[in-house]
Automatic annotation (TrEMBL):
Residues 2-147 form the Ferritin-like diiron domain. Keywords: Iron, Iron storage, Metal-binding, Oxidoreductase. This is Ferritin. PROSITE patterns: FERRITIN_LIKE (PS50905). InterPro entries: Ferritin (IPR001519), Ferritin-like (IPR012347), Ferritin-like_diiron (IPR009040), Ferritin-like_SF (IPR009078), Ferritin_DPS_dom (IPR008331), Ferritin_prok (IPR041719).
Amino acid sequence: MSDKESPFVTLLQEQINHEFTAQQQYVALAVWFDARDLPQLAGFYYRQAVEERNHAMMMVKYLLDRDIPPRIPGFGNIRNDFGEPTELVALALAQEETVTRQIEALFKAARDGGDFLGEQFMLWFLKEQVEEVASMQTLLTICERAGTDYFKIEDFVARETGSEPADPSAPAVAGGAL
């Protein structure tokens, strides 16, 4: 079996779809917050959407660099109907937990297949998922504590989140990071 047909490459092609779908789901969350005049939460999820797009494009770049043609997929189903902020953050946390399991499976497939380059590539994503899950779990806890006082959530997001400097250890992004 060639590298182009390995279980790792198959899963990585699928993960590109998952990352783009996560991007669109985060856009839907951001728009929901934006429509309710919650700009800090909207901005947080708009930034998350860009981050997911960049993750997908890192995977595209990796495949291109390995001379494996990437497949650019359509998006999966996106949820748009919510009642209150805790629902959105809980969905984001569940999404990040799912992505963590997917990244772990990718790492395992690379290791099991003796694909040392693939294994090394996935290390950054494992670290990233620890941060993503922790961030969403903290935000969910804040939402639960704030109850219906959405401005407490907005204050937390304004105070505790924002753009971080670029991670120099991050994989290259096809077309450049946004």
